[in-house]
Amino acid sequence: MISIWFFIGISLLVNGALILAAGIYQLLDPPAEITIVLYSAHANVWWGAILFAIGLIYCLYFRPRGSHSP
Amino acid sequence: MRLLATLVTGTLVHLSAVDYAIVVFYFALVLAIGWYLKGKANTGEDFFMAGREMTAWVAGLSFLSANLGALELMGWAGSAYQYGILATHWYWIGAIPAMLFLALVMMPFYYISKTHSVPGYLKLRFGEPSRALSAVSFAFMTVLMSGVNMFAMAKVMQIVLGWDINFSIWVSSLTVAIYVSLGGLRSAIFNEVLQFFLIWAGALLVPILGLYEAGGWGNLKIQIAQRASEQYVHLWSGLGHFSTNPMGIHWTGIVFGLGAVLSMGYWTTDFLVVQRILAAKDIRSAEMAPIIGAGFKMMVPLIVILPGLLGLAVLPMKLVPESMVATTGAHSYNDVLPLMLARYCGPGLLGLGITALIAGFMSGMAGNVSAFTTVWTYDLYRPLINSKGTDHHYVNMGRWTTIVGVLISVGTAYLVMQFASIMDYVQALFSFFIAPLFGTVILGMLWKRATGPGGFWGLLCGTLSSISMWAWVKVDPTALRYVALSPDAKALAQDMYQALWSFIVCVTVTVVVSYATKPMPHAGLAGLVYGETEIPAVGDVPFYEKPLFWAAVVVAVFVILNIIFW
Questions:
Q1: Over 80: is that where the pLDDT of B5 sits?
Q2: Domain range summary for chain B, segments of one domain joined by +
Q3: A39 interaction partners in chain B (CB closer than 8 Å)
Q4: Could you please report the per-residue DSSP string of B67-85?
Q5: Topology, domain B2-564
Q6: How many Å lie between the alpha carbon of A60 and the closest alpha carbon of chain B?
Q7: Does the interface predicted TM-score (ipTM) exceed 0.85?
Q8: What's the maximum distance between 2 C-alpha atoms anywhere in chain B?
Q9: A10, A19, A46: best mutation site toward chain B, by most B Cβ within 10 Å?
Q10: Pick from A14, A37, A70: which is nearest to B213 by CB?
Q11: Using CA atoms, how far apart are residues B325 and B306, in angstroms rounded to an integer?
């Protein structure tokens, strides 16, 4: 059975990639009007990268290899 | 996406394409998990008990996540804005002792008896009438709770995104119905663990960025003292009198009503959460799971209470009670978390935050529905309607009950719209059923002399006393001075004392009736009561793998946190 942790990894990996991509896009093409507080922290870049890295580790470590307990 | 766009009528925030992609990906993933697990839920043990093969981590995170529903995320963030750090009591003294008590004292009995449910334990210990009473009250409570979850989610989606409330209710309920009916409890557990990670990933940025904006905890306390009161950041120092804290409660209500009765009842006898532990693979995992849950429970205020406190300090507008929203046009306390998300989260992060909220709501709903399905099938349908069905028949009954349970919840969600305050309504429900049930179960486990009639009449009288007190205060609000011991007491204080009195009524009636009836034969109590049961060892493992060691660690952190925020 596929481990639950693999599904967690997929979720973090995909969400992290989307958030990171959105953050990089904003860096390259800043919006005309800033609607959030602390925009300059570019949280979506580093937070997206953290989620992506954790998701990647989970996906690799818990990838389906025969048998895994849940 | 075009469909969603057409449903937008007026929004607190605007989602971008990447935000929608994250929301849609979440729905696709939970449905895919349900579909994948479809073939692994063919027997009753698989469908209703997840095969009893969950590890301590999976069972523990699921145990915690089943409770991280609508109330946790929005309700308690709103309560933190309204009452200050006092709301943290519901996470610490109102949870940690009870979770550890479940792990070390009660879990062995649940586990040894191999029961499918808490009402199932009452059948073994006190007989069929007690099981039927608790099963009916539990089934009633879970569908109402599920409706509350559904309504809360639809409300959030309406406020934050402008989505039509009916659209939100039906999309979320159909998704839950599909993945739980396909994969049973295992599917619910998998999605609860997924939700746990999403909630932390989506919500943790708010306290991080919020504290940065406020200038750290020290500056935050100063700002809250200026905008509200210094008592908003103290856990215990204002509880010496009802009138010296924002909640209008006395420390006896927090310690005895919340800590000793209400939370014990919820965390040790509410089958919604206990079911996750019953799915553990062995006794050590079953004991470790609530301890792991307790460790993470202590951290949840970081993403729920702290955003509420930060809202007090940094939000430019003043939030109001739900009842004043229509007249003032302001946002309610319950909106504080979405408002904070909108304050800090840009494209992508906002989608993840919204997904975390949706996941929390759907997970709470799925937890209620899967517990309802098990209790209906094993504690009502099988003993009272059809006791001769095959295992396959009961699994099919479980699948259909999941769908019917969701539909009843949808109906309940529309009913809940008539109530002004979600929180008070659910707290009242807890007091009705949970506190007396804890009295019955704990006497059943610890007191050999408790008899079947004693258990039944204690449970019935405790429940009726709680409903009577609630109705009394509803009819005559001045009665609160008697129920909660002070004219200064407020609604949440009433719930604490109501729980305490109903527990006392339950225990008193159980003791009196037990002494008036014939003792049960000792042979029938083996595996069910202390003194008649050999508690199995957790195995020959190093000290750092023993539940007792980790329980001691959790206790130490719990004490330190309470002292720091005294």
A1: no
A2: 2-564
A3: 346
A4: T-SHIIIIIHHHHHHHHGG
A5: Sodium/glucose cotransporter (1.20.1730)
A6: 17
A7: yes
A8: 69
A9: A19
A10: A37
A11: 23
According to the model, what pLDDT value does residue B317 have?
86
What type of residue sits at position B454? G
Under 8 Å between Cβ of B413 and B147: yes
Rounded to a whole number of angstroms, the distance between the first and last alpha carbons of chain B is 49
**pLDDT tens, position by position, B304-325:** 999 999 999 998 888 888 778 7
CA distances from B347 to A36, A39, B198, B202 (A): 10, 11, 16, 12
Q: Show Cβ contacts of residue B565 under 8 Å, excluding neighbours closer than 6 positions.
A: B85, B88, B233, B234, B235
Query: What does chain A come to in residues?
Result: 70
Which amino acid is residue B510, in one-letter code?
T
Q: How far apart are the C-alpha atoms of B548 and B6, rounded to whole Å? A: 55
Please answer yes or no on whether A11 and B29 come within 8 Å at the CB atom: yes
Alpha-carbon span B389 to B409, nearest angstrom: 27
In whole angstroms, give the CA distance from residue B275 to residue B120: 11
Q: Is the CB of residue B482 less than 8 Å from the CB of residue B527?
A: no
Would you tell me which residues 25-44 of chain A have a C-beta closer than 8 angstroms to some C-beta of chain B? 25-26, 36-39, 41, 43-44
